[in-house]
User: What shape does this take?
Amino acid sequence: MGTMTEFVKVIYGDKEFQLPLIVGTEGEKAIDISKLRQETGLITLDTGYANTGSCTSSITFMDGEKGILRYRGIPVEQLAENSSFIETAYLLINKRLPARQELTEFSVLLNDNSLVHEDMRDFFENFPRSSHPMGILSSMVNALRSFYPELHNPGEEINITVTRLLSKLRTLAAMSYKISRGHRVVYPRPDLTYGANFLNMMFDSPVRPYDLDEDVVNALNIFWILHADHEQNCSTSAVRMVGSARVTLYAAISAGIAALWGPLHGGANQAVIEMLSDIAANKNMKRAIERAKDKNDPFRLMGFGHRVYKTFDPRMKIMKKMCDTLLDKLKISDPLLDVAIELEQIALKDDYFIDHNLYPNVDFYSGIVMRAIGIPTNMFTVMFAIGRLPGWIAQWKESQDDPNWKLCRPRQIYTGPTETNYVPIGKR
Ligand code: ACO
Assistant: This one.
């Protein structure tokens, strides 16, 4: 963050106020309004927070106009090409890339913590079979505190909680899937890497052993790296906001999972596949585009548009390339990919989408990658949650360590009735 040498003038009534200008390391500017109400009696109103910075952060930089995304300064393209998900998680949480020895130790710790308390397994095996895996996952993460009570040393407590979450979320995710299908859960194996272990826990079965494929493991690795953090999005803000009440990290992450579930956020990857399947089955692409453009119709092209990106989402470009390579290697031809490519081409030439800066986002092709890996549609958002976990943890840690951190408590402009007398029930 730069020095606060410039000010912004606010004129209200016959008074002039000077508000400090904050400049980030990439030159983004903000008006510091932390003393605005105290000095002027005014608050700001910004529904959806599109113009509001909720914090300063050194984790992720994104430029929505230029299509840039970097974690701790490193372009996501470089990480997707060279890093592993575990190494990227380390980078986000510990602020730097690990040395070889540190990475090995981190992997061993994750492996040691991968099992889930047997009582917890029994408890969740009784969840209704039709439950959505995101609902099960959010409940399970919150329940972790009950099964793993707090340690007395605060430093140790944080480190072990972070490790537990990173390792167990993957186990819980696979468990939630097995439970939702009424199948017996598969235990993690110490000889497998993080991603390979997840795939094995998802797909191995007593009647059909699972064959691990390096290309599939790599694709999953890249998928998770691309989702690892995205600065102050809806679920991350939920983690920070809930965390600001000083709840446990488990409770804050559980809130993040609940927020991610929504179709306008992480749930979009599932919604994209449902939309593409509908278009493929009913051959109604033209109608879908017309509906998306109709102001009176709530239908939107899922996987299009983004609050911050007003150009191509850089993650989408990597995802699309990976999608082509994976399908090619696995010799899969997915009719939904043809629909997606055609829809993208039509939308990108359409004035409505051009004028509204609507480009495909990361979710547009991620569902097709997930299908190729064999992930069922209702698990797509769970895959996103595993990927986003390191980001949530890094953001939560940063907020807890911030000396200026406060309980998150926005204000409002009240528009209801002014003082009104209570009317007894007999006189209404
Ligand atoms: N299809 C059609 N029109 C759209 C779409 C879309 N996908 N997205 C936005 N618009 C239109 C809106 O109707 C609005 O039009 P108007 O100004 O003429 O009324 C305009 O574009 C701006 O839309 P807002 O909703 O105000 O923009 P916002 O920044 O709030 O929306 C969002 C971002 C929620 C992602 C939106 O683009 C959307 O709903 N997309 C589809 C869902 C999706 O793909 N979500 C995943 C996002 S990425 C992620 O979370 C990982």
Q: What stands out?
A: The beta strands are 7-12, 15-23, 29-31, 60-63, 68-71, 74-75. The first helix runs from residue 36 to 40.
